[in-house]
Amino acid sequence: MKAFVMREIGRVGFVDKPVPKPGPNDAVVRTTRALICTSDSHTVHGGIGPRQDLTLGHEAVGVVADVGSEVRDFRPGDRVLVGAITPDWGQRAAQAGYASQSGAPLGGWKFSNTKDGVFAEYFHVNDADANMAKIPDEVADEAAVYCADMLSTGFMGAENGNIPIGGTVAVLAQGPVGLMCTAGARLRGAGLVIGVESVPARQELARTYGADEIVDFSKEDVVERTMELTGGEGVDAAIEALGADLTFQTAVKITKPGGTVSNTGYFGEGEFVQIPRVDWGVGMADKTIASGLCPGGRLRMEQLLRVLAFERVDPTLMTSHTFPFDQMEQAFEVSDKKLDDVVKVLVTF
Amino acid sequence: MKAFVMREIGRVGFVDKPVPKPGPNDAVVRTTRALICTSDSHTVHGGIGPRQDLTLGHEAVGVVADVGSEVRDFRPGDRVLVGAITPDWGQRAAQAGYASQSGAPLGGWKFSNTKDGVFAEYFHVNDADANMAKIPDEVADEAAVYCADMLSTGFMGAENGNIPIGGTVAVLAQGPVGLMCTAGARLRGAGLVIGVESVPARQELARTYGADEIVDFSKEDVVERTMELTGGEGVDAAIEALGADLTFQTAVKITKPGGTVSNTGYFGEGEFVQIPRVDWGVGMADKTIASGLCPGGRLRMEQLLRVLAFERVDPTLMTSHTFPFDQMEQAFEVSDKKLDDVVKVLVTF
Amino acid sequence: MKAFVMREIGRVGFVDKPVPKPGPNDAVVRTTRALICTSDSHTVHGGIGPRQDLTLGHEAVGVVADVGSEVRDFRPGDRVLVGAITPDWGQRAAQAGYASQSGAPLGGWKFSNTKDGVFAEYFHVNDADANMAKIPDEVADEAAVYCADMLSTGFMGAENGNIPIGGTVAVLAQGPVGLMCTAGARLRGAGLVIGVESVPARQELARTYGADEIVDFSKEDVVERTMELTGGEGVDAAIEALGADLTFQTAVKITKPGGTVSNTGYFGEGEFVQIPRVDWGVGMADKTIASGLCPGGRLRMEQLLRVLAFERVDPTLMTSHTFPFDQMEQAFEVSDKKLDDVVKVLVTF
Amino acid sequence: MKAFVMREIGRVGFVDKPVPKPGPNDAVVRTTRALICTSDSHTVHGGIGPRQDLTLGHEAVGVVADVGSEVRDFRPGDRVLVGAITPDWGQRAAQAGYASQSGAPLGGWKFSNTKDGVFAEYFHVNDADANMAKIPDEVADEAAVYCADMLSTGFMGAENGNIPIGGTVAVLAQGPVGLMCTAGARLRGAGLVIGVESVPARQELARTYGADEIVDFSKEDVVERTMELTGGEGVDAAIEALGADLTFQTAVKITKPGGTVSNTGYFGEGEFVQIPRVDWGVGMADKTIASGLCPGGRLRMEQLLRVLAFERVDPTLMTSHTFPFDQMEQAFEVSDKKLDDVVKVLVTF
Question: Which of A92, A289, A293 sits opposite D284 (nearest CB)?
Answer without folding.
Answer: A293
